[in-house]
Amino acid sequence: MSVTPQHSTPLNVADVTVDDPFWSAEQHLARTAVIPYQWEALNDRVPGADPSYCMHNFKAAAAQNASKRTAESSGKRFVPPTYTDRGFNALPEDPANPDADKFYGFVFQDTDFSKWIEAVGYTLATHPDPELERTADEAIDIVCAAQLDNGYLDTYYILNGMDRHFTYLKDHHELYCLGHLVEGAVAYYQGTGKDKLLKAAARFADYVASRFGTEEGKLRGYPGHEIAEMALIRLAEATGERRYADLAEYFVRERGASPLYFEQEDRARAVHDGNKYQPNEDMPLPYAYYQAHQPVADQHEAVGHAVRAAYLYSGVADVARLTDARDLTDAVDKLWRNIVDKKLYITGGIGGTRHGEAFSYDYDLPNDLAYSETCAAIALAFFARRMLQIRAKGEYADVMERALYNTVLAGMALDGKSFFYVNPLEVRPEAALNRDRNFEHVKPVRQKWFGCACCPPNITRIVSSIQQYAYTLGEDGATLYTHLYMGGRARFDFAGAAMELGVEAAMPWSGEGKATVHLERAASGTLAFRLPAWAGDETGAAAVVTASGENEGRVSREIRDGYLYLTGEWRDGDVVAFDFPMPVVPVAANPRVGENIGKVAFVRGPITFCAEGVDNGEGLGRLHVDAARLDEATAEKFTMHAGFDESRTDGSGRTGVVDPVDWDMVRLTVPGWREPVEPDTADDAPVDAPRVPLYRRFDPACAPDRQPVDITLIPYFAWANRGLSEMRVWLNL
Amino acid sequence: MSVTPQHSTPLNVADVTVDDPFWSAEQHLARTAVIPYQWEALNDRVPGADPSYCMHNFKAAAAQNASKRTAESSGKRFVPPTYTDRGFNALPEDPANPDADKFYGFVFQDTDFSKWIEAVGYTLATHPDPELERTADEAIDIVCAAQLDNGYLDTYYILNGMDRHFTYLKDHHELYCLGHLVEGAVAYYQGTGKDKLLKAAARFADYVASRFGTEEGKLRGYPGHEIAEMALIRLAEATGERRYADLAEYFVRERGASPLYFEQEDRARAVHDGNKYQPNEDMPLPYAYYQAHQPVADQHEAVGHAVRAAYLYSGVADVARLTDARDLTDAVDKLWRNIVDKKLYITGGIGGTRHGEAFSYDYDLPNDLAYSETCAAIALAFFARRMLQIRAKGEYADVMERALYNTVLAGMALDGKSFFYVNPLEVRPEAALNRDRNFEHVKPVRQKWFGCACCPPNITRIVSSIQQYAYTLGEDGATLYTHLYMGGRARFDFAGAAMELGVEAAMPWSGEGKATVHLERAASGTLAFRLPAWAGDETGAAAVVTASGENEGRVSREIRDGYLYLTGEWRDGDVVAFDFPMPVVPVAANPRVGENIGKVAFVRGPITFCAEGVDNGEGLGRLHVDAARLDEATAEKFTMHAGFDESRTDGSGRTGVVDPVDWDMVRLTVPGWREPVEPDTADDAPVDAPRVPLYRRFDPACAPDRQPVDITLIPYFAWANRGLSEMRVWLNL
Question: What 3-state DSSP class applies to B50?
C-alpha cells in the first residue's frame, strides 16, 4: 500500500494537551510571565517602559464613536507620524499628559492587542482562567466599540481622519492590523467559543473586500506588511466562508503586478503632500523590501524585510494549497529552496542584515553582524508548517524544528522576562556595548520590553500554540502527521473514530519515546511519523521506529520524503515506539558562506550549540576545535543555573536581569585547544614596558603552543542567561 | 664615538629633488592630473561633481568687504547649515542659481583652497610653472580680499554673520580653516618666496591669539577639528615668531581641561537656540570623538575621529619637541604605542570603524567593515614624521613608510583621476554594491571626486612634499637623517659646509642603492641611515651598508634604535652603499585580533600585498595559503596594465573609470590551494534540480579535495585599477 503526501491542517489547540517537560515549561512561562506582563504593557502600566498607547487608542476611538463624532467633525488636528528606524510613530507633545482623544504610538499599535488576545485564546483553550477571560472580554468590548459602522477598524485613521485611510498601504500597516486582528479573533474564538471579536474581524475583512479587488472602482492595493494573506485563509477555514480566501488570493495575485501599486501610491501621496516623488531604491529591485517588486508567482529569491517575506510566503503557501495553484506552489517551492540552501542560519534564523531587517544576498550570513530577528524565525516556522500542509516532507519539519528550538526560544530569557529582537551567532560584548556602532543592533543581554513590541508577543503566540506545529490531519481524514515529537495527548477524528494519541517524549534532549493509540473502536488509516534528518538517513531513522501491529501484518510501513507512513488497522493500546539516535554532529557550511570557512559548529538533535565566555573564558576566537579528536565530543545532562543582575553603568545604560531559575538541558564537551596569547600591555604602562607586536612573521614551524582545552557548549537558546559574556556558534578549527 | 638621537627638522621641499621613478611618477600625477582638476573643482567647473563653492565663497566675502558692508548691515538672512553625515552643509535653494552673496557648501569649504595652494606651493618649489603660479596668485588675491580688517578669515561667518563666530568651535571648523590656511601659506611662501598669503595667515593667527587663551576675558576654547596645532608650530618655525608656538601650546594644553569647553559651548548654544542641551555620548567618554574628553597629557588610548586624533598627536609631538615637555612626550609615546600595538592595519591604515570615521576598541581591526580613511593614513604619516623629529627611531619610519606606500597611495587610482576615502582590507563587490548596507561606505572602485573633498587634496599635498618625509636635519646642524630611501638630490648645510646627497634607489621594489656625498670641502658630522625593520634585525640590516670612509677609519658606525649612524669626516665623492634584503614575508597578527585568526598576509619590503579576483578568480575566501610550502613564495617584476571603463547600471549608479596606464611593480606568487565548491543552483532552476546543502556533517577524514593553485598577489596600493573585483589582504591558511 503506497501513501501519497496530502494536504493537511493542524489540530485545534484545544484538542492537544502538552505535558512535555520542555514545552510545558515554555508555555508556563508564556502564560504566567509574558501574558500578564503584556497586558500591563498594553495599558501603559510598565514602569520604565515606553508606553504602548494600544488600549489608550482603542478607548479614544470608542469614545469618539460613542459621541457620534468623527475626527474631521471634531476639527482635530491631524498628528502626522514621524518616521523612525522602526516605523511611523506619533508621540504626545507632553509625554506626561497624553491627550485622551488622540492616537499615539506606532501606526501598527493596534496589533499589540491582537497579538495578546491571540496568545490568550490559545492559553484559555487548554488552561481555563476565568479572571484572564474576563479581562480579555472587557478588552474585546473596548476594541469592538472602536470599530466604525462600516467595519473599518484601525485606530490610527479613525482618530486622525478617515479621509486619508487606505492611501498609504505601503507603510501604514492598516492591512497588517486587519491580519493580526483576524489571527487574534480566530484564536480567541477557537479557545473560548466566543465570537464577538471574530465577527468584528470578519466585518473589517468584509469592508476591506468591498474596497479592494480587480473590479472597476476598487483599489488594486495589497498589504505593505504582509500577514493578512495567511490570516484570511485562517478566517476562511474557521468560518467556512470562501470569500475570505478569495480576498487572500487577490492580495497574493495582485502583489507586484505591473504597474506597481506602491509606486503609484507613492506618486499620488507625493502630489497630495506637495512633495517630490522619490523613486524607491530597494535592492535588487524597487519595492523588494515589501516583496512587491514583481508578481509573487515570479519570485524565486527571498528578498527584503525577512518577517514580511516569510509572512507572505506563508500566505502564498496557504493560497496555493487551497486553490491548487501550480504557479504559486512552484514559487514557494523555489523561495523555500533559496532560503534553505542559501540564506538560513544554522540556528534557524533568517534575515542576515540589520538594514531593512532583511535578507542579504545569497550565502551572505555574517555571524557577528547578523540580524536574524526572532520574529523572522517565527515567520519561518509559519512558512514551514504551511509547506508541510501542502505536502509532508521531512525537510520542512527539520527547518521548522530548528527555528523553533533555537532562534525562536533564544528570543526569550529562561525566566520569560526579557527578550532578544536580534539573534547573532557571535557576540563580543565590547562591540555590542556600543564601542563599535556597526553592532549597535546587537544586544549582549536581553531587553525588558520594546516600544515596538513585535518579538515578545510573537514568541508568546507561537509558544502558546506550539501544538499546531506538532500535528496535522490529512484531508482524507484518516492520516495523522506527527511532525514534532512532543509529550502530550492529541485528540482527533480518525477515519470516523475518535482517536487520542498519547505521546511520551523527551525532546530535544533524547530521541526516545512512544505514541500510544487510544481508540473507542478499531480504525483503519495512517499514522505518519517524521524521520528527523538529525537522526540519520531515512532508512536508519525508520529502523528505530516500531509499531504494535507490524509483526502481525496489521500495519505496514512506507518511507517517503522523510516520513514513515504506518498504515493499517489501529486498535486501542497500539504503541509506536521510537528511539532516534542523537549523536553530537560537527557541521561545516557550504564554502560559499565565506564567513564560516575554517569553522565548525555543533548540533545534536534539533539543538544548535554555542560557546559562552562564562564557560570557556574570554577570547572565544582563540579557541580551536581539535579536528583530529572530534569523535571524543560528548553530551551530558546539565542543569543550568540561570540568573544574574547586572546594572552596568558603562555609558550604554543597559541593565541585564534574569531571575534565578534552573533549567535541565544537555551540554557538550568538545576537545580543542587554545591559541596562547601574550599578556596585554596597558595603555598607561610605561613606554618601555614589554610590548607585544601587532604583526610578526608567520612561521608554521613555530606554531603556537597548543594548550589543550575542553570546550563547553550549551544550547544556543540558553545563551545570555548567566550575565554579560562572549558567545560564538561557529568555532575555529 | 656615540651618537644620541636628537631633535630634527625636515629639509625644505625646494632643497630636495625627487628623480626616483616611483615617487616622481606619483608627483607627476599630482602635478599634472590632480592639481589642475582640483582648481576646476574649487571653481565649480567639474561636470557632474557636486560644486565646491570654495572660490565662490571667497569672492562673495571679498565683494562684501569691498562694499564696506557686513552680513548684518546687509540684513542678510542667516543660512543655517544642515548637519549631514560629513558635517554641516549649506546648499542653495536652487542649485542652478546660487546667490552670489551667500555662503554655500560645507562649513570648512575654505580649506579646499588651502589644501590646493599647499600642493601648488610644493610643486612650484621644484617645478616652476608660471601659468600655475599666476593662477595661484590671482586666487590668493581673492582670498586675501575676503579677510576682515581684524584678520579673521572664515567665509562661513563673514558671510553669515560675525555675531556668532567662535560660538561653535566643536563642529564649525573655524580653527581648522586657520590651520589649513597656515599650512598652505607656509608652503606657498617656501615654494615661491611670496609672502602675501603668509601674512594673511599670520594676521588670522594673531587675531585668534588675541581672542583665545587663559587670560581674563579670553575664550578658553580650542579647535573642534585639530590641525592648527601643528600648523602654528610650522608657522612659528617658518617665521621665527615664538608667539605662534605659544598659541599651539595653549591649544594643546587647554584641550580636555575641566570644565570641558565643548560641553560649556554646547550648553550655551542650546540656551541661545532655545533647544534642550543634549549630553554628548561619545565613547569611551563624552567628547572623545574630538579627543577633548580629558587633558591631552593624560590621553593614552587613541580614540575618536582618526584624522582629528592623528592631527592632534602630530601637533602635540611638535609642541613636546619645541617645549621639551616631558608629560606631552610621554603622552604621544603612549598614544603611539596604543596605535601601533593595537589599532594599526597592516596596510598602515587607522580608524577601523565608519561610525565617526573613528578608532574602535583595542584589537578591533575588521577587514571588510574597515573604514581606514586615506586622510587618516596621511595623518599617521604626519604623526610618525613628528615622532622622528623628537628622536630618530626606526619604528616611526617603518610605520610612516607603511602608511605612505600602502593606504595613502591606495587612495588614488594609477591614473591620478579617482580616489578612495575608505580603504578596506577585504572587499566583496556584492556587499559593497549596496546589497548589504553594512558596507555602504565601502566603494569597490574609486570615485571621481567628493563633495567633502578631503582625501584627494590631502594625497596631493603629501605626495607633492614627500621629500619632507625622507630627510630631516638634526639640531646640531651636522646630522642628516635619511628615513626613506628615495632617488634624488638633497641639499643642506652640513656642519657649515654645503652638502648635496645624491641618492639612487629603487624602492619599494628593491633595497639596493647608494648615496653619494657632494661637498665643497670636507666636513665632519653624521649621516644617519634608517635600518628598515623589513630588512631584518638591526645588525643584519646594518651589515649590508658600507661607507667609503670606513676602511680607512675616517668614518665610524653605531647602530642605535633602528638607525645606522655613520660619523666622521666626509669628503666629496664618498659613497654609502646599501643592499637591504627584501624577502617575501608571511605575517600573522596578534591573536587578539580575532578577525585574523587562521589567516596570513604577505609583505615584501614596505609593500603590503593583496589578492584580487581579476588574478585569482572569484571566491577569494576559498583560497588557502599552503603553510607547508611558504618558502616557495616568489616575487617577480611585473607591469600592471591598469585601466578600465565600467559604466555599471546595477542600481548603485556607480561608474568606474581608470585611463589605460602601465605601471612597473612587483607581484608575488604564493603556493596555495582552492577549496572546491559545487556549482551553485540558480534560484529559478526547477525545484528538483540538484541542490547543494548549506550545512553538512564536517568530516576531517573527508577533507575537501585540495586543488593546488598559485595565488597571485599585487601591491595593495594598486588594487581596483583593473575593474570591479574581489580583494583580500588576509588570506586563509
Answer: coil
Rounded Cα–Cα distance for residues B717 and B413 (Å): 9
What does DSSP say about strands B479-482 and B523-530: parallel, antiparallel, or unpaired?
Answer: parallel
What are A327-382's pLDDT values in tens digits?
A: 999 999 999 999 999 999 999 999 999 999 999 999 999 999 999 999 999 999 99
On the question of a cis peptide bond just before residue A583, with omega within 30 degrees of 0, the verdict is: no
Look at A693 and B333 and tell me if their CB atoms are within 8 Å.
no
What's the grid cell of residue A281? 531604491
Mutation test of the interface with chain A: which of B622, B698, B729, choosing the one with the most A Cβ atoms within 10 A? B698
Name B430's bridge partners.
none
Asked if residue B77 has pLDDT above 70, the reply is: no
Judged by CB atoms closer than 8 Å, whether chains meet at B697 and A341 is answered as no
pLDDT at position A588 over 60: yes
Alpha-carbon gap, residue B592 to A496, rounded angstroms: 67
Residue in A673, A695, A726 to test binding to B, most B beta-carbons within 10 Å: A695
Q: What is the mean pLDDT of residues B497-503?
A: 98
Contact by Cβ (8 Å): B718, B663: yes
Nearest to B714 by CA among B659, B679, B670: B670
Please state the ipTM of this predicted complex. Answer: 0.94
- DSSP state for residue A476 in the 8-state scheme: T
Q: Does A561 touch chain B (CB under 8 A)?
A: no
Residue A654 pLDDT > 70: no
Q: Is B331 on the interface with A (CB under 8 A)?
A: no
- What is the spatial distance between Cα B434 and Cα A150, in angstroms, rounded to a whole number? 45
Task: Tell which of B430, B435, B623, B675 to mutate to test the A interface (max A CBs under 10 Å).
Answer: B435
Question: Which of A26, A357, A500, A612 does the annotation list as catalytic?
Answer: A357
Task: Report CB contact under 8 Å: B693, A621.
Answer: no
Cis omega (within 30 of 0) for bond into B429:
no
Hey, are the CB atoms on A630 and B698 less than 8 Å from each other? yes
Look at residue A257 and tell me whether its pLDDT is greater than 50.
Answer: yes
Domains defined for chain A, CATH in brackets: 53-255 (no CATH), 472-580 (2.60.420), 586-732 (no CATH)
A13: cell is 489547540
| Side chain identity at residue A154, one-letter code | D
Task: Tell me the percentage of chain B whose pLDDT exceeds 70.
Answer: 95
Mention every residue, 6+ apart, whose C-beta is less than 8 A from residue A688: none
Tell me the one-letter amino acid at B527. Answer: L
CB-based contact, A279 to chain B, within 8 Å: no
Please tell me the distance from the alpha carbon of residue A217 to that of residue A161, in angstroms, as a whole number: 22
Taking CB atoms and an 8 Å limit, are A301 and B683 in contact across chains? yes
Position B75 scores a pLDDT of 67
- DSSP state letter for A50: P
* Contact present, B482 and B515 (Cβ < 8 Å): yes
One-letter amino acid identity for B247? L
Q: B15, B491 in Cβ contact below 8 A?
A: yes
Tell me, what amino acid is at A231? A
State the helix-helix crossing angle for A306-323 and A326-342, rounded to 10 degrees.
Answer: 140
Instruction: Tell me which chain A residues have a C-beta less than 8 angstroms from the C-beta of B677.
Output: 590-592
Concatenated DSSP letters of B653-698:
--EEEEEEEEEEEEEEEEEEEE---PPPPPTTS-TTS----SEEE-
Q: Give the span between the Cα atoms of A278 and A281, in whole angstroms.
A: 9
Helices within B533-588 (DSSP H only): 538-543
How many whole angstroms separate alpha carbon A631 and alpha carbon A637?
18
A704 contacts in B (CB within 8 Å)?
591
Q: CB distance B435–A284 less than 8 Å?
A: yes
Q: What is the pLDDT of residues B115-152, one digit of tens each?
A: 999 999 999 999 999 999 999 999 999 999 999 999 99
